[in-house]
Amino acid sequence: MKIGYKLFAEAYPPKEIVRQAREAERAGFDFVEISDHYHPWLYSHGHSGFVWSMLAAAAAATETIGLATGVTCPFIRYHPAIIAQAAATTAILSDERFTLGVGSGERLNEHVVGAGWPPVSVRHEMLRESLEIIRLLWSGGYHSYEGRHLTLEDARVFDLPGRPPPIIVAAGGERAARIAAEHGDGLFATEPDDTLIRTYEQAGGTGGRYCEVPLAWAEDEAAAATSAHRLMRFGLTGWKVQAELPNPINFEAATASITEDDVRGTVACGPDPDRHAEAVRTFADAGFDHLALMNSGPDVDGFFDFYATELSGRLQLVGSR
């Protein structure tokens, strides 16, 4: 089992995100992953730097830790040709430590270019076509492609890594899990849902199974819960809401009735390492083997120290079960 750290780019400025990537490496994490957003979820988050710039800087600032997007929508706001080039360059800059996480996106980020927001069935078709285009461009040489939704005209990515980055496909349901099996190298999820893994494996998927584990570390449990409520309450709205609301103000309204007690029900809060290890165990028992810890506590560096001295050893025992 690999343990990663979620770089919360919506809550911190770009230079701080790069610093956290370096500190995560020092703390002993196996990888970091970072979302590819144009807007933050909530106004109170206050940030949303450009992921590809931060990844390039993180690649230069680190030596061994894996880097991943968690996740990029490779169409609408982008074209998959651009993502193919960006991911290839990031893989080169990181000495092939990069993993491309992709998904069907959220209106929050994609509507900004004025191209509309298709229904999820169409987005899945666009995701399939995007992955076909990316694979095509990574094979070398010039290529054209004409799909139902996307077109590529006489394009070539000139700088390619020695091996293409793994592609991990996000899934919130069975259709996307099958896309992950058919077109990806792994599965990405945000909930410990073993039915996604079963669907993925039944469709022929054999790669890594990634998931995010919500935690909030602080020396005081109440302080951890307050911070988790401020940063993570958007996660309680559910994926169907998260994919459809267009702006942070909508998420502020949608989360107005969510309380700290509600957050405590889904986020492990406080200083107890056994409590956090048990939260991780829930995801491991569901079958996920690449777990990104999403800390929403108020003290980032305190969490890194906590992980290095108290939590990592316990998680090794979880992974060995």
Automatic annotation (TrEMBL):
Coiled coil: none annotated. Residues 11-290 form the Luciferase-like domain. Pfam families: Bac_luciferase. Keywords: Oxidoreductase. GO terms for molecular function: oxidoreductase activity, acting on paired donors, with incorporation or reduction of molecular oxygen. It comes from the Bacteria. NCBIfam families: F420_G6P_family (TIGR03557). This is G6PDH family F420-dependent oxidoreductase. It comes from Actinomadura viridis.
